[in-house]
Write a structure and sequence with these properties.
The complex is a heterodimer of chains A (288) and B (299). By secondary structure, chain A is of the alpha/beta class. Helix content of chain A is 33%, strand content 27%. A six-stranded mixed sheet of chain A has the order 5-6-7-3-8-9, sandwiched between helices. In chain A, helix 3 crosses helix 4 and helix 3 runs parallel beside helix 5. The longest helix of chain A is centred in the middle third of the chain and has 14 residues. With 299 residues, chain B is mainly alpha-helical. Helix content of chain B is 69%, strand content 0%. Chain B is built from 17 helices and no strands. In chain B, helix 1 packs across helix 3 and helix 12 runs antiparallel to helix 13. The chains are: A alpha/beta (288), B mainly alpha (299). The interface between A and B is large, with 40 and 32 residues.
Chain lengths: 288, 299
């Protein structure tokens, strides 16, 4: 992995709420997934990487530039594609007009070249057929794809995507994976998601973040391995376990200590994530 | 094996080398392209001349046709500019700048129509003796103030997260839009001022207060919400008038020529100098605090 982004001692608060509490991380070419519950600090981290906001303290280097300086910020923005968590739209624009408007803001001022790029990205996300429909007539999933399309303008070196698959149907999600997978071969993609399937499907690396701190950084397989010997299948539920649920086979999947008669199961990213975060989320935090 | 081009029937005429040269350089007009390409497709001599000119394979004809087809696609696909965009482009504004301008809330025909209608009624009422010349002087500076405040409020629009992370600086974008709405609103107010009864230089006494309020609104918007800034400045403006000339209601009743200017220091030369100073200071403040508009630390 070629390191393209480094953050060290990153802190950011909103009033009395600490969103990032001294984070140290490295990101490189390929896809890095940020996993964490709501309010974990994922969006704040992505917004700092995307130069939408600045940190209170700490250092950030993005593609060799310091986004806290005016020149560095401009340089980063010229190589950036960003999909915010809740992208907004000018409702009176058509799809084409809206992406064209963003293309102008990305300094694509030659009309023909700009229009060609707008058509390319709309086609890439499967919106070529609706490019002349007004934004307000599009479904939620289509709007997410419009947001993704504008991020792809100009083939950016860095893609920062905040929950890009939220609201997409399974087919659209597969298409998204195909698009991002193609880009990630030579570029840096950082995405926040709640979908552990997305992480296992397309991410080279995964970072688990909660309460503004990093709890895991490594490969998806490495994350899954942290749950080894803590995931079981059993014929009966396990009330004392962190979680147990009945699966489609009729057996119970148990996360936690072994039960009598339980058999070890191959852990998944979801199991490991639940083990890392679930105790806090479920109010069962143990003393270290 | 026979060359495929030699089997074509030679047309009775040939394209002049100058035309082929312009075509090869991509400088032909669409009508010239439409005339030349069918001929070129069926004329071996001109194809040979064209190949010689471009020093490339005959495939360049296909490439050129492909580019023409792309141009046709683009002309069909590209958005139809709004009336306002077309007006801006007609006066020399580049198409991409016009697109950035028309998103401005106060840069809409409905806004201009509302301002123009308000001013037209003001002029009519003043000329018919229904209201004072003072009402125009008091109200005219508030129109550009509202336009600029609405422009700055656009940074809080739903697309702010997308636009703030683009290379185009938001401070530049806001300045561009503010200048756009300021110029057009001032032109409308200026037109109304000319249509009012002639009071000499007093017809322009609203201009510097308008600039002062507009720039102060922009500068204050780096600390507080633009609507808060606009309301505070409007209240400040009316308060300043009341403080320097008595209750505003009395101002509005001042119909006589020169009456308002004599009564209120705000329109006297000293007040004009204060307005000029506020304009300059506000512009400097805006310049110094423009980073706030670029990094998303807005209130």
């Amino acid at each position: 992995m070629t390191v393209t982004i480094t953050v060290s001692g990153l802190r950011r608060s909103f009033g009395s709420t600490v969103a990032l509490d001294g984070i140290d991380l490295e990101f490189g070419t390929g896809v890095t997934g940020l996993l964490g519950p709501n309010g974990a600090g994922k969006t704040t981290l992505l917004r700092i990487l995307a130069t939408a906001i600045g940190p209170d303290a700490g250092e950030v280097r993005v593609l060799g530039h310091d986004p806290q300086s005016t020149e560095g910020r401009l340089a980063v923005r010229r190589m950036l594609g960003f999909v915010p968590q809740e992208p907004g739209f000018h409702q009176r624009f058509t799809t084409f007009e809206f992406v064209d408007y963003l293309a102008i803001l990305k300094e694509l001022t030659d009309r023909r070249a700009r229009h060609d790029d707008v058509r390319r990205v709309l086609s890439q996300v499967g919106l070529g057929e609706v490019m002349h429909r007004r934004i307000k007539t599009l479904s939620g999933g289509m709007r997410r794809r419009v947001a993704l399309a504008q991020a792809l303008l100009g083939n950016p070196q860095l893609l920062v995507l905040d929950e890009p698959t939220a609201g997409l149907d399974p087919e659209q999600r597969l298409r998204f994976r195909e698009i991002v997978g193609g880009i990630a071969e030579a570029h840096t993609v950082v995405l926040a998601t709640h979908q552990t399937e997305d992480v296992s499907a397309i991410c080279d690396r995964v970072v688990v973040i909660d309460q503004g701190k990093v709890f895991f950084e490594g490969t998806p397989q490495g994350l899954a391995d942290t749950a080894r010997a803590k995931v079981w299948t059993s014929d009966r539920p396990a009330p004392g376990a962190l979680l147990s649920w009945r699966t489609s086979t009729g057996r119970y999947r148990v996360i936690g200590d072994r039960l009598d008669g339980a058999e070890p199961a191959e852990p998944t990213i979801e199991d490991a994530y639940l083990l890392l975060i679930g105790k806090r989320a479920l109010g069962q935090e143990e003393a270290a | 094996m026979t060359d495929s081009t030699s089997s074509l029937t030679e047309p009775p005429w040939h394209s002049p080398p100058a035309h082929l040269g312009r075509y090869a350089r991509g400088e032909s007009t669409p009508s010239q392209v439409a005339s030349l390409e069918p001929h070129l497709a069926g004329c071996p001599s001109c194809q040979a001349a064209f190949v010689e000119l471009t020093r490339s394979a005959p495939r360049s004809v296909e490439d050129r046709l492909s580019r023409v087809f792309d141009a046709v696609i683009d002309s069909v696909d590209r958005p139809v500019p709004s009336v306002l965009e077309r007006l801006l482009m007609r006066v020399g504004v580049p198409d991409h700048v016009a697109r950035l301008l028309v998103v401005t809330p106060a840069m809409r025909l409905s806004w201009f129509a509302a301002v123009a209608t308000t001013l037209a009624f003001t002029v009519l009422a003043t000329r018919s003796g229904g209201m004072g010349f003072g009402a125009f002087l008091v109200g005219a500076p508030l129109l550009p103030l509202g336009a600029v405040a609405a422009t700055f409020a656009v940074l809080r629009d739903p697309t702010a997260d997308l636009t703030i992370t683009t290379p185009v600086r938001n401070s530049w974008l806001l300045l561009l839009r503010s200048v756009g709405v300021l110029v057009t609103t001032l032109v409308l107010c200026g037109t109304a001022a000319i249509a009012l009864p002639d009071h000499g230089w007093e017809n322009a006494a609203w201009l510097l207060p308008a600039l002062a309020l507009s720039t102060a609104s922009a500068a204050l918007s780096t600390w507080v919400h633009p609507s808060t800034a606009a309301v505070a400045l409007s209240a400040g403006w009316l308060g300043a008038l009341a403080a320097t000339s008595g209750p505003v209601a009395r101002l509005l009743r001042t119909v006589d020529s020169g009456g308002l200017v004599e009564q209120s220091a705000a329109f006297a030369p000293s007040g004009q100098l204060v307005a000029l100073a506020i304009t300059c200071v506000s512009s400097l403040v805006l310049l110094r605090r423009r980073e706030v508009l670029d990094i998303g630390r807005l209130p």
